[in-house]
Write a structure and sequence with these properties.
This protein is mainly alpha-helical and about 700 residues long.
Length: about 700
């Protein structure tokens, strides 16, 4: 036995020695072997464990190889260490060398295969097992569930000779994680008995799939079921999250009181859930009170507060918290950066976005897929697509959201061919497109006037069963046709859709009619909108009124405005804003409330003179009021976007780019004027309206006068 490289057990040695009255030389030797084996085994075992815990795998193997007769436990320990450090081949070789394997070793090897994504090998080992425990079955079931192979997991589950509560819980959790929450609930109800993990898994599963109210009902059943099942901190986390998602303020406050009584309030994850709960219920004061209840150094709680401020559109407060967390030494994680960058988008604050980007670079997270995706979105929404594309190229492992972000960014900036090029690369990278990809590509075709490519893409995705064609996609196709002036074809397309068009689709057609001054189609589209939604928003009335105003049909304009007044509708005023040094400066048409108004108007008057020297003639069709032509010209000269540009010119360095945001579509006259302004001041002027980004430079616009 000693020469077969297998260590004898202590019982074997004692049996060989027996209990003779006179100790022989052989028995003394065997006693020595026993003592040596016992001491060296404990020592080596401790050293191996220390090496493995500190990820010193090769050092652990060196010690392991010095053990004359490793036992099953030591083999299993070494195999598990290899598997946990992605050394699957080494684990498998050592497993194959084992002279004797117990069920724990088999289970460890199967678990290692699953952790390394070797599902087929795990199944092969499972089938080869001489005998299986409940843990073996449950491990293999978890493996199938981990890879979304629900049917195979089900097959094994129902083949199990006996099932413990852990097997039931694994199957319920797997159903919920793979979107089959109804099957999870059915299995939950079939369970012979349940523990707190069963209840928590089901409550969390219901909440994660939009059934937050049902999750809260289940929690009430849990605490009132008559069985001694005490909720844990994990249970309370799930329940508070469900209250947040359901905006169940009263019930959440009651549960918060229970948490305080039980002493769970200092748990970091419960605190984070409470911060999020109050933020979702628009109670930021209470959210902050929970946060300030204890000096937290846990990144999860800080991130919850940053996210909460963002959800409540308090973006400046969100960024202040983000700065503060770094100042006190709490290092942001991916979620922290995502929330902070979302707030930068909310403020359209490129300077703050660059500050957050710098922090991500310092922490080595710039190439992280989640942080990278958020950076792409931040840059293109703040008017800087080139930096967004540069970030995209740095992302190590791109996912569908990465490709979607860069495609949508290109579409928003009017770079349709770039969007199509990225889509081709996406397909070559074997990344599956989704509904957002489809929308982004159609939008790119719309903003670039690519009708035939739009038709081809619509056909491609309609035939691709993996992507569901939704009303948004039909609306994009109507937009492509409408922008090119094919209004009758667009109307026919809507009427022949396989699903009934909603008011949004007809509103897109109405907007195209405004662009091409086609009253007859516009009136039909407006009628369809009002028939579908008698209490629709003011957008349809405003577009129709503007069409009548452009055609000088002031009687119809008056009628529409009167009808809007009777219905309690108000027209959304045009607003433009520019962010300089972190401060947002907002303007409306003819605004003189800004502290720098005198200098702004002085600058615009000077520019007006220079523009006329270059042949500029105001297009009075865009002055939508029944006034004299001279007054129309004055009104056009001081539209909100021009005021914002004027302020940018007097507040920034010569040659720097000016970025202005506008809540409505830029009018044709302002579009012509800004092209000339950019040429006069020799600067790039970026204007983002409700439709897209316009990059003005040297008397031209990136949209090619097509928007």
């Amino acid at each position: 036995m000693l020469f077969q490289n297998f260590k004898p057990s202590l019982l074997t040695i004692i049996s060989a020695i027996g209990f003779p009255k006179k100790v022989t030389k052989l028995s003394k030797s065997l006693v020595g072997v026993a003592n040596y084996t016992k001491i060296s085994t404990l020592s080596n075992q401790s050293i191996i464990t220390d090496h493995l815990n500190n990820q010193r795998i090769d050092e652990a193997r060196t010690v392991f190889d010095k053990i004359p007769f490793p036992d099953v436990y030591q083999y299993t320990k070494m195999i598990t260490g290899y598997a946990r450090n992605d050394r699957f081949d080494d684990a498998l070789q050592l497993f194959d060398k084992m002279p004797v394997k117990d069920v724990v070793t088999w289970n460890s090897m199967i678990k290692g295969c699953l952790d390394g994504a070797y599902l087929a090998m795990a199944r092969k080992l499972f089938d080869e097992m001489p005998e299986r425990s409940v843990v073996s079955w449950t491990t293999m079931i978890n493996g199938f569930l981990q890879f979304g192979r629900i049917e195979e997991a089900e097959g094994l589950f129902y083949k199990m000779p006996s099932r413990d509560i852990a097997a039931w819980n694994s199957m319920i959790h797997g159903y919920c994680c793979n979107g089959r929450v109804e099957d999870g609930l059915r299995l939950f109800e079939e369970m012979p008995f349940r523990n707190v993990i069963s209840w928590t898994s089901m409550i969390g599963g219901l909440d994660q799939h939009g059934k937050s109210e049902e999750a809260l009902i289940l929690f009430r059943q849990m605490v009132g079921c008559g069985v001694k099942v005490n909720p844990t901190s994990s249970t309370y986390c799930c329940v508070i999250t469900a209250c947040a998602n359901a905006s169940a303020l009263y019930q959440g406050v009651q549960i918060h009181a229970h948490i305080l009584k039980l002493g769970y309030s200092f748990d970091a994850y419960i605190s984070a859930a409470l911060v999020t709960f109050y933020a979702n219920c628009k109670k930021m004061e209470d959210s902050l009170r929970v946060f300030l209840g204890k000096l937290h150094m846990n990144v999860v709680i800080w991130t919850a507060l940053v996210t909460g401020y963002g959800l409540n559109c308090k973006h400046e407060d969100a960024l202040k918290v983000f700065r503060e967390m770094m100042k006190v030494g709490v290092l942001p994680n991916q979620s922290s950066f995502t929330s902070a960058l979302n707030s930068c988008c909310g403020l359209e604050a490129l300077d703050w976005g660059r500050e957050v980007h710098t922090a991500a670079v310092k922490l080595g997270l710039e190439s992280d897929v989640f942080v990278g995706n958020s950076l792409i979105v931040m840059y293109y929404r703040c008017g800087n697509l080139n930096d967004g594309v540069a970030i995209f190229k740095k992302i190590a492992k791109k996912n569908t959201a990465s490709w979607n972000s860069v495609i949508v960014g290109c579409a928003q900036h009017g770079y349709g061919m770039w969007a199509l090029a990225f889509f081709n690369k996406m397909l070559r990278s074997m990344v599956e497109p989704d509904e957002i990809t489809f929308t982004g590509l159609l939008s790119a075709c719309s903003h670039s006037g690519m009708l035939q490519k739009g038709r081809c893409l619509f056909k491609y995705f309609s035939e691709n069963k993996a992507v569901e064609v939704k009303l948004d996609h039909y609306a994009c196709m109507v937009d492509i046709l409408g922008r090119l002036g094919k209004l009758e074809e667009a109307e026919e397309f809507i009427r022949n859709m396989p699903v009934e068009a909603n008011s949004m689709v007809w509103l897109v057609l109405l907007g195209a009619c405004r662009m091409h001054s086609r009253l007859e189609v516009a009136e039909r589209a407006a009628k369809c909108i009002i028939d579908l939604e008698p209490h629709c928003s003011s957008a349809a009335y405003v577009l129709l009124s503007n069409l009548y105003a452009s055609a000088s049909r002031w009687g119809d304009v008056s009628r529409i405005r009167k009808e809007m007044k009777q219905r309690g509708m108000t027209k959304q005023p045009g607003r433009s804003w520019i962010t300089i040094k972190g401060w947002r400066n907002e303007f409306v048409s003819g605004d003189r409330s800004h502290p720098s108004s005198y200098r702004i108007y002085q600058k615009l008057e000077w520019l007006g003179g220079k523009m006329k020297e270059l042949g500029y003639i105001p297009d009075k069709r865009f002055a939508l009021h029944d006034v004299e032509d001279e007054q129309k010209e004055v009104m056009l000269s001081y539209h909100s976007e021009r005021l914002a540009i004027g302020f940018g010119l007097i507040s920034t360095a010569e040659g720097s780019t000016i970025t202005v945001m506008k809540n409505l579509r830029i009018c044709g006259d302002c579009h012509s004027a800004i092209k000339l302004i950019a040429k006069i001041v020799r600067r790039e002027i970026i204007v983002r309206d409700s439709t897209r980004f316009h990059h003005f430079m040297d008397g031209r616009c990136s949209c090619g006068d097509y928007w």
